[in-house]
């Protein structure tokens, strides 16, 4: 599974509608409105890199209200649950 984080600049008066339209696209797992340099952050999960080309410029980029996108591809996921599980392996002395 390939995960991409898409930073989205949107028209200020269309942020809620734009976010919902993006969230409704297949392959988009989450969309967050946020403060800072971008208006929306979308988490995209696909099975192949080629799917990103179909999804981001062809679908997300064409949603009404999207001004610009900047995509970051994730290499590895780190979470507290993953870390705790890794340290639990063999912890019982077996």
UniProtKB/TrEMBL annotation:
Domain of life from the UniProt record: Bacteria
Record-annotated Transcription regulator AsnC/Lrp ligand binding domain positions: 6-76
Record InterPro entries: Dimeric_a/b-barrel (IPR011008), Tscrpt_reg_AsnC/Lrp_C (IPR019887)
Organism the protein comes from: Amycolatopsis marina
UniProt cross-references to SUPFAM superfamilies, sorted A to Z: Dimeric alpha+beta barrel
One protein family per Pfam: AsnC_trans_reg
Protein name: AsnC family protein
